[in-house]
Amino acid sequence: MGAEGLSVDKQRKSEQRSGTPLRGRENLRTRWWVPLPRLVESGEVLDTFVNGDLSAVTVEFHCRIVDPPCPLRIVDRFRVNSGGDRGAGELLRS
């Protein structure tokens, strides 16, 4: 890899940490999704919770990460509309 390739790689890593959201389906697929299959070893749903008025569902699960080897504890909350469809999830804790 030449100096130019290293520069692009450093720039890409900086962009990933910048807090700037990825935009566009293709950009998401090629930059965010590509490394996931080799990083996630397994996943396990631990528990679910539905609130009293049935407007939100929370799921707790563990992902086992290959590199670095560690568990990733995740709780994700989804809003549910009147048609029973889930809306956009919001990450509450990781």
Descriptors:
disordered N terminus; disordered C terminus; 43% strand; 4 strands; 4-stranded antiparallel β-sheet; 3 helices
Q: What is the arithmetic mean of pLDDT?
A: 76
Question: Strand order within the widest sheet?
Answer: 1-2-3-4
- What portion of residues is helical? 25-40%
Which structural class is indicated by helix and strand composition? alpha+beta
How would you describe this protein?
- A 4-stranded antiparallel beta sheet has the order 1-2-3-4.
- With 94 residues, it is an alpha+beta fold.
- A hairpin with a 4-residue loop joins strand 2 (56-65) and strand 3 (70-80).
- 30% of the residues lie in helices and 43% in strands.
- The longest helix has 15 residues, at 3-17.
Brief characterization of the structure:
By secondary structure, the chain is of the alpha+beta class. About 30% of the residues lie in helices and about 45% in strands. About 0% of the residues are buried.
